[in-house]
Amino acid sequence: MRLDAAGKACPIPVIMAKKELDNGTQDLSILVDGQTQIDNLSRLGKTYGREITVTPEGEKLVATFADGDGNIPESAHGFDEGSYAVFFNKEGLGSGDAELGMNLAKMAIFTLSESENIPTYVLFMNGGVKLTTGVEPQIIENLNTLIEKGTKVLVCGTCLNFFGIKEDCKVGTVSNMYDILGAMQEVSKVITL
């Protein structure tokens, strides 16, 4: 089956492909506009144990999923008991003084990196993506410590593009709304800071 997702905004190509993967569709390929969609589809494929191959088609790209065994992996639905995500939707913690908010964010991420109960995910959206740009080097260092311990750090690509800072992102995986909401659904609780 071939899907045409050219010109469709993120995360629509991923949602289109996931629907077919959930139905057990074999011989699946999808036409997309560029590398960002390919990266997102590649992560989706890995979740299903179905790697993708990419071929150019004019100015577009075609992602073809390897055939699978028809089973939907546990990681594609449900949540892990006791797991949690930390969600940053702004550049600092709380409201009021911006400098204080940034210092609180820095201390929160440091505290998480020192914790024995690390989050499954740390998620950045809207102004929170600015925390991943190295404006505060200790934040990058502590997020890398969390990644080394097994935390997945997802950063909204649409938000990075909106602020014109995609090239400045220094840590984590540039992701999309579908993956970030999926991460929230996968864990038993989400802590918004």
- Our count of helices gives 6
Tell me what the CATH architecture of the largest domain is. Answer: 3-Layer(aba) Sandwich
Gyration radius over CA: 18 Å
Please give the domain count. 2
Principal-axis shape equals globular
Strand order of the largest sheet: 8-7-6-5-9
The CATH C-level name of the largest domain is Alpha Beta
The portion of residues assigned to helices is 25-40%
Name given to the CATH homologous superfamily of the largest domain: DsrEFH-like
What integer is the average pLDDT?
A: 91
Can you tell me the CATH topology of the largest domain?
Answer: Hypothetical Protein Ychn, Chain: A
Number of strands: 9
Strand content: 15-25%
Report the span from N to C terminus: 42 Å
Structural class: alpha/beta
Please mark out the parts with pLDDT under 50 across 5 or more consecutive residues, or reply none.
none
Largest sheet: 5 strands, parallel
InterPro entries: DsrEFH-like (IPR027396), Se_metab_YedF (IPR019870), Sulphur_relay_DsrE/F-like (IPR003787), TusA-like (IPR001455), TusA-like_sf (IPR036868)
Domain UPF0033: 2-55
Pfam families: DsrE, TusA
Organism: Mogibacterium kristiansenii
Attribute tags:
2 domains, Sulfurtransferase-like selenium metabolism protein YedF, 193 residues, Se_metab_YedF, Hypothetical Protein Ychn, Chain: A, transferase, Translation Initiation Factor IF3, alpha/beta
